[in-house]
Amino acid sequence: MCGIVGYFGIKEAQTILIDGLRKLEYRGYDSAGVAIIDNGVLNVTKCKGRLANLEAELLETPLKGTVGIGHTRWATHGKPSDENSHPHTNEKGTISVVHNGIIENYIHLREWLMAKGYKFVSETDTEVVPHLIDFYYKGNIVEAVKKATAKMEGSYAIAVLCSDEPDKLIAVRKDSPLIVGLGENEFYVASDIPAVLNHTREVYLLEDNEFVVISNDGIKLEDIEGDIINKEVFHVTWDAAAAEKGGYEHFMIKEIHEQPKAIRDTMTSRIVLGQPITLDDINITKEQIKKLDKIYIVACGTAYHAGAVGKYVIEKLARIPVELDIASEFKYRDPIIDKNTLMIVISQSGETADTMSALRLAKEKGARVIAVTNVVGSAASREADDVLYTWAGPEIAVASTKAYATQLIAMYIIALFFAQNKETLSMDKIEEIKAAMLELPEKAEEMLKDKETIQKFTAKTYMHKDMFFIGRGLDYAVALEGSLKLKEVSYIHSDAYAAGELKHGAIALMEEGTIVIALATQEELFGKMVSNMRELSTRGAKVYAFAPKGHTEIEKSVHAVTYVPKVLDILAPVISVIPLQLLAYYMAIQKGCDVDKPRNLAKSVTVE
Ligand code: M6R
């Protein structure tokens, strides 16, 4: 996690760095800091807490200079504190480093450096980096950074300044994202594109072990041997405004409302009536699809919940067995993988550490990997064999909403693509599902109009400490997501259960007034769901049901019903998740929580 930025140019660096950090705060917000070189002197300001704290300090004592680096932290090694904030420096204060990632051998390096007389002032893994660079510094900062990185194990994106060579900014990455923004006579480095979009749309997407050397002579990309790397400039087509709030109070509510568009964009040119599904960046052949004996879907958090829907629809439509795995567990269970195995990783960011480890393990063992990701040029998109981009646009709120909706669409597209190639469905059936998919944006708009019901519900229930989500089949997968959303933004404890499983234990938790959110969108399972709801109402629970329009008979069995637009059963998750996202959002608002930046969380989890 963590966000890093760097600026080298002709303008005052402080404002540009702060602006960049603001765009990266979704990556962590435990502390923030900047280091700027002014007349050959390296000045550092850093402090615990949100970026606003740093801004307040800089307002009182601004830092001058046109070359600088900055950092926003999600704490891993060492609690959030001023000392543990980045940038970290060497003892003389001449070398300054910002870092995203984890230096896995930092204990060894720390002891080694301490034995040589180096003194440490923080508990972080990062602090070994400036000391290591200092150790190797013999008048050439680029060489010293290269020697230091050769000793470092783990993941990192770092940016380095040295006041003895004030006209240089060095950056390098390994297993953590880093991009370079190209301006006119000015350059930017950052963990992610939104940080530079106010200044430029031309960027380099760096690969591992590519060193960026920015100086008065311009920019050079080189490898550890000093050989020049020629790289294509990537032109960012999406608008900076797409990463702004656009009149909404929070990113989360803005992104919830962007779902109809995100769903439509993700289907564009892929789901076209009367045309077979062709997928640009997926090169798996018909023969390879026919030979697949198993698919693993591997992901974390919300992406994992999208995978739960993916498992169901791929098995149902394409008749290929699918195993669903939590990425952080996957490699530790010695999974059975061979060349007839396909892995689908789902990751909004395309850089989640656990998901990337699973992807690499699958590739090592000869499996083919499809990455479903929202970030062009992300690690997942580069390392997988095939990519299916979810065109959700930048998702800034820590709680994933529109990315989830588009991941569901990606699952339907893959399932239909496999069904088409394996001929497990007739063309008529495929066309029927495609036609229903094309109606989803409109149905999502319709669902979004009903937010007042949800607001009223949250006003009555936000003081509850626990809530339960239940469902059967695909509704259970959505219940998992609804429960995660609620707890992550409103801090209300919640659990999701397969409705039929309640009687095997969890029903003991039901008492007078217990709040249960019950999803009943699946026609085939409707009757059984109604029985489950009745069992809970009988035991005093207040059951709030979500059911397809027209199913008014449910009203007798529950406390209240919200009707959702009717769609094909397999597509229902795309619509039924919307009221649950709204519910989580309005609960958090009622409770006064920081919706876009929930405590202890970060958008991209780049540590295992
Ligand atoms: O970037 P990824 O999709 O790989 O992220 C996976 C999870 O960390 C993410 O979905 C997380 O669970 C969200 N905060 C949930 O809203």
Automatic annotation (TrEMBL):
GO BP, sorted A to Z: amino sugar biosynthetic process; carbohydrate metabolic process; fructose 6-phosphate metabolic process; protein N-linked glycosylation; UDP-N-acetylglucosamine metabolic process
Encoding gene per record: glmS
Coiled coil: none
Name recorded for this polypeptide: Glutamine--fructose-6-phosphate aminotransferase [isomerizing]
Keywords: Aminotransferase, Cytoplasm, Glutamine amidotransferase, Repeat, Transferase
HAMAP family given in the database record: GlmS
Single annotated GO MF: carbohydrate derivative binding
Glutamine amidotransferase type-2 domain ranges (all copies): 2-217
Subunit structure: Homodimer.
PROSITE patterns the UniProt entry points to: GATASE_TYPE_2, SIS
Gene Ontology cellular component list: cytosol
Main location: cytoplasm
Function: Catalyzes the first step in hexosamine metabolism, converting fructose-6P into glucosamine-6P using glutamine as a nitrogen source.
Enzyme class label: transferase
Localization terms from the record: Cytoplasm
EC number: 2.6.1.16
